[in-house]
Amino acid sequence: MLSEIKTLAQTLAPRLIEIRRHLHAHPELSGEEYQTAAYVAGVLSSCGLHVKEAVGKTGVVGELTGQGTDRRTLAIRTDMDALPIHERSQLDFASRIPGIMHACGHDVHTTLGLGTAMVLSQLTESLPGTIRFLFQPAEEIAQGARWMVEDGAIESVDAILGVHVFPSIPARHIGIRHGALTAAADDLEIIIQGESGHGARPHQAIDAIWIAAQVITSLQQAISRTQNPLHPIVLTIGKIEGGRAPNVIADLVKMVGTVRSLHPDSHASLPEWIENIVSSVCQTYGAKYQVNYRRGVPSVQNDPDLTKILEAASREAWGSDLVRIIPEPSLGAEDFSVYLEHAPGCMFRLGVGYTDKENYPLHNPLFEVDEAAIMTGVVTLAYTAYKYWNY
Ligand code: NI
Fold this sequence. Notes:
Elements: H1 2-25, H2 34-46, E1 50-55, E2 59-65, E3 73-79, H3 106-121, E4 130-136, H4 144-150, E5 159-170, E6 174-176, E7 180-182, E8 184-193, E9 197-198, H5 208-226, E10 233-242, E11 248-249, E12 252-261, H6 264-285, E13 288-297, E14 300-301, H7 304-318, E15 323-325, H8 336-339, E16 345-353, H9 372-390
Parallel strand pairs: 3-4, 3-5, 5-16, 6-15
Antiparallel strand pairs: 1-2, 2-4, 6-16, 7-14, 8-12, 8-13, 9-11, 10-12
Helix pairs in contact: 1-3, 1-9, 3-9, 5-6, 7-9
The structure holds nickel (II) ion.
């Protein structure tokens, strides 16, 4: 089966590069992927998949049922949205839309989903179960996965695979992580209400700026003294505003930040833990406060069994030299984790780095990918899917 998949992917390679370049030249922002979705639906229909559009606003679902008797459904999720970045590459298929660019490789992801659908649609006789392709919108604003789930895209799915390109891994390589891949990311807003007064008479006022400084310091110190050091937490206050004049004590400070964590126990305890610290500092100095903690996305925790299947398929397909086991998780976030609240899954990294020229990071206006990775990604997804039913 591996050699059949490889031959089909090889034959499709020029068409897949054409698809990827078309998508790259026509990027659309999160939640506005109308043309991308129509294009995806067209390709899926032409391969004979059962297609549903407008799932999760601008998402697309394509389903392919094999001729076997295994009733399990495997999903493959790829995302479709681009970023508000003005492309600066000199590529002849560079973005034609000023200020919008596929700088996170979601054009490649979409192509991988389509390529895998094209390959497997020619192998339905050997396909034991059902495969469902989820083309998700709005990953960059961490909303699309929830929209898809709310619209039933994950219903009756038994396992789900995901992929993200990675420029620091060379093309033709696969990066696999056992356990946690990315962090949970939540939003934090803290408002401190003091009392205004003359800058020369602090004892007659309640200085919200000074109390905000105490709150930030206490939060950072408390992480190192009251949280398990083996369960990493990063709390970043990214914006702070307050005050009016050099000689007026500020009565109001508002700050916002992001909270990243890897362990589910720490993640669960964070809102109460933060509120306790803010409350004790504010009470000590007589300020009022408000803490608004908004859950973002959970941590991507790769399923042990599915990760083993992916690793076995990758080693068989590419040899162990091209398979990298990723030693550390990232504190970045990825809304693939939202599907994992409903089904076990595994997300891997696809190397897209050049070995003979400079690589730019994701979200950079000069980001480029080595397109050799498309063939690697399609074969890895298709063969892992096949192995899922035959493991
Ligand atoms: Ni991305």
